[in-house]
Amino acid sequence: MAEKRAKLAEVDPVWARILMEADRAVADEPLLGGMVHYSVLHHPSLERALAYRISLKLANGEMTEQILREICDEAFGAESHLAQSARADIVATYERDPACHRYLQPLLFFKGFQAVQAYRVAHWLWKQGRRDLAYFFQMRSSEVFGVDIHPAAQIGKGIMIDHAHSIVIGETAVVGDNVSMLHSVTLGGTGKEEEDRHPKIGNGVLIGAGAKVLGNIKVGHCSRIAAGSVVLQEVPPCKTVAGVPAKIVGEAGCDQPSISMDQLLGTR
User: Fold this and answer.
1) Which residues form the Serine acetyltransferase N-terminal domain (predicted)?
2) Are strands 167-169 and 174-175 parallel, antiparallel or unpaired?
3) What is the pLDDT of residue 260?
4) Above 50 in pLDDT, residue 85?
């Protein structure tokens, strides 16, 4: 077993670490043994574990866990980048969230991570033209996780959503790589137009709790949006904006605000 795990760590270090942490979790808390075995140790890969976890969470009287699991397995089998993005999301959560001490935690306990992975499957369905099924995933994610991401939205990898309650991301929104956001963030539209109407968030952006970014506007890479701000105009790269409506109050303060998670206003 040790030799097998060592070889796995060379090709899939994220999954190998999750398995190691799962073994330790069972030893530390035997009452969670069943849950950890069914969710992690029973599966040969992170892809299969993700499919199990998503289907378990989203199943209801209208759609069984087995059907949802087959859909997720199909998605992860068809698009390898889905699970690669999930690995990046796990690492991002571990590195940026001070409450995350193990790679295992997002997979088992963090609804922000789980909601993003459910969105990734829904987005794959959307691109396949299976839009009603994609809407089902969106509906159940909103009901279960309190996170409402339209399946047509485009979201990069290395995403960390802390707490994740009341997140809303609209249909034509684009979120780049290595973005961090806190609870109650809205990336919304304005008016009733059906065209491109939602924000475009650059790479490395930090969006504070309760911030609202509205309309087809660009938020430049490595910028910061302060908690509670309402952003109605374009944000240049590497700037900090705050207020209602939001105005530029300084530089971003560092090269990667989404990674440092420093939400204090002003320059450094």
Assistant:
1) 14-118
2) unpaired
3) 79
4) yes
